[in-house]
Amino acid sequence: MSKIAVVTGGVRGIGRGISIGLKQAGYTVIATYQSNDAFAKELHTDFGIDILKFDVSDFNSCEMAINTIKNRYGSVQVLVNNAGITKDAALHKMSTDQWQAVIRTNLDSVFNMSRLVIEDMRAASFGRIINISSVNAQKGQAGQTNYCASKAGVLGFTKALALETSGKGITVNAIAPGYIDTDMVRAIPEAILDKIISLIPMQRLGTVDEIAKMVQYLASDEAAYITGSTISLNGGQYMS
Ligand code: NDP
Fold it and tell me: Would you say the pTM of this structure is higher than 0.85?
């Protein structure tokens, strides 16, 4: 029987690539999203990937969603915490709303979703949790105290949960992407994007497929000895 994989924010951008990659690798994939019905429908129609709409920053919504998934498909074996947002501003101009929205969406969500699947993973002696962090968690980025704090929090969470679950068939890892060729990155004005690319040692953006392939590997049985790791996938932009 195919394994059950949940990808948060799995209907567009990096998450869409992860969802499609896992589906093609034989998983039963549930791609979640918040509001973008058009992208969700397209993914369902074109790739037969099931979709579920809820707010990952809200624990009760996550609980209802996980219960729905368990009733429809069974316990979650692979969780990819990918949903994330930015609300950039220099700290002296940042509002509490900008701070809280990013922390709740990028970090609380990782607690919410992981908390709701971890007991079943422990009972099954199997699980894979893969958290999508960011190179900016490692190196910092002006204008992103909220985002960098949330994504660095994800790295600490990853290591602590990896320690709690080691020896129980569960692995918990993070991927820290650099600039990936997504609509969001392509929306950066061309001159600025050219400057950014010129500062990346590999002189190019990463691809969604490169992230998706790493997720597939971390989800696989072959990756059973990797836990608590942060995989840097950034073209050499930051070496930790
Ligand atoms: P996108 O903005 O393209 O997609 C984000 C996804 O998250 C969407 O599907 C969105 O849902 C979902 N989402 C956002 N907020 C919520 C919420 N509250 N509840 C449920 N779903 C939510 O992001 P990217 O593909 O660019 O990024 C994916 C991840 O990778 C993020 O965590 C990001 O921080 C990280 N990352 C991205 C990089 C890049 O270069 N793009 C670089 C480094 C890290 P909906 O479609 O309904 O809006």
Answer: yes
